[in-house]
Fold:
Amino acid sequence: MVAIEVPEVNYTDYSNRQLAAVPLAFLVLALAIIGGWVVATGAPANLGLEFTGGVELRVADDGGNAEQQIQTAFERQPDSVRTIAGDDVIVVTFQAAEDDPEGLANDLQDQAEAAGLTTTAVDQVSPSFASDTARTALFGVALAFLGMSVLVFALFRTFVPSLAVVASAFSDLVIPIAAMNLLGIQMTLGTIAALLMIIGYSVDSDILLNDSVLRRTGEFYESVSRAMRTGVTMTLTSIAAMVVMAVVASLFGIGLLRDIGIILSVGLCADLMNTYLLNVSLLRWYKFEGVAR
Structure:
């Protein structure tokens, strides 16, 4: 079994501003990307069919020129075309538009069959149902984040250490969403689940650090080093597992697992940065310069 060696970091070589500068820069960049998406599309990320409504056709891939046929088979251009290699299926997605007719799903299926394509399944999501789903998902994420924040403040009962955990978790959530936009990953119920998992990972590592510094015996840097030996090892192991999952899922054409693996990998990398730079800088200020003097 390979042991992970966590190097000692001499935090005294850096000021609190220097430690916080890198994670804050990433946070500002991520917020700028998300803000740009809101201005351009009206949403903070590329929304999937569950949140926009529309039609999804599953077309049999018979080994011929099915992908080329799809490009010319329909009267409107598909919003996405992806291949599921293991099932020999091509998934063609049409997101809802204001001028869609009532029988859009049947029309698209007829157009596919007229072009010589074999449709194995047709799914349609109404825009009103998709809007309700989006609101429910957004409420779920907001409720999870709020519940986490309340729990953290109740656990530590001091403002700065609790703020450090919440700020780190917020950044851990925002950075993967920005990465999703850049990588073309859609916001779906599956990727929402990945974002909720990131909140859990983030709180776990941050509470480990705060508990070691605030509640256990030992000097500040010794406590940070002790927390890093456990926290960094745990996070790097999780990152390795997520990368493997993303690679294997890509090879087998399992798009959702690939996307979840990528999102969690980005989120865990952000968690390493935020926990051991941003959180440490806030805790050190609290211990040596703030109200805990």
The chain has a mean pLDDT of 87. Residues 235 and 268 are 7 Å apart (CA to CA). Strands lie at 54-60, 80-84, 89-95, 119-125.
